[in-house]
Amino acid sequence: MNEPMPEGTPVAATGKRWLIFALAVVALWGVWGAFTGISAQKGFPETLTYCVWAVTMILPALYVLARAGWKLDRDPKSILYGLIIGLLGAGGQMVLFYAVNTGPAYLIFPVISLSPLVTILMSAAFLKERTTKLGLLGVVLALIALPMFDFSPDKGFSFMNGGVWFPLALIIMACWGVQAYFMKLSNNSMSAESIFFYMMITGLMLVPVAWLMTDFSKPINWGLDGPWLAAAIQVLNAIGALCLVYAFRHGKAIVVAPLTNAGAPLVTAVISLVVANVIPGELKIVGLVLAVIASALLALAA
């Protein structure tokens, strides 16, 4: 990785480095999203999958911190931002591991891809930022798309028609949308290495919670296709998260967040549809397409 910039240095686009890191996020998270539910299907609980994910964050965090000369931002503001970013990210991950075990990834991830909607609305409300007409159209399409994932022709619109995965996907969308907002706030005052280090720490902080939530009375797969397969899948997530932090460092957050949130779920949806060999209902297809278009418009408007 590159040497850290001095604290307070504005994060402007540095050549195309931000785009390289952002595309790496799209590829890594896209593949990870398609296969992250396999662990639970193989008999390795989602709570323990979270524990494995948290552990996979350690080596990348220590590696980049070592390359940065072990310089860690320790002022109260950096610690607060680091904890908020980390807890929102880790909390969303914990919910996601359960969500993909209860619903289809090809629908869950397009819903999550709309998290820039939360980021943009918060930026408009608290930072007085304004989006373009394309961004406004993206917001409108996102608001139209979301209910379609939870619509049933015989029951109409109901918060739980889509199953428990739908409200869980909304929670994850909110967590990661707020997380991106705080990444944006911290981007000019913290090093990328410090942000990722605090993300790793907060992820580990929730490991005891996930461990206590595990039902050890049920059989658990401790074989190669249990924790070891989970680790192979979750390391894609960990490296992707690191690339995301560096994408924020070298590029504008308002561009990076929508781009990665639009691209990765699209890769996940395509892979999941091919692997699952299923075709969702017509309205869900419309919702999926609108979600992808909305995410793309939010990215173009940034």
UniProtKB/TrEMBL annotation:
It comes from the Bacteria. Its main location: membrane. Pfam families: EamA. GO terms for cellular component: membrane. It is found in: Membrane. Keywords: Membrane, Transmembrane, Transmembrane helix. The chain crosses the membrane at residues 18-35, 47-66, 78-100, 106-127, 134-152, 164-183, 195-214, 226-248, 255-279, 285-301. Residues 17-146, 167-298 form the EamA domain. It is a multi-pass membrane protein. Belongs to the EamA transporter family. This is Uncharacterized membrane protein.
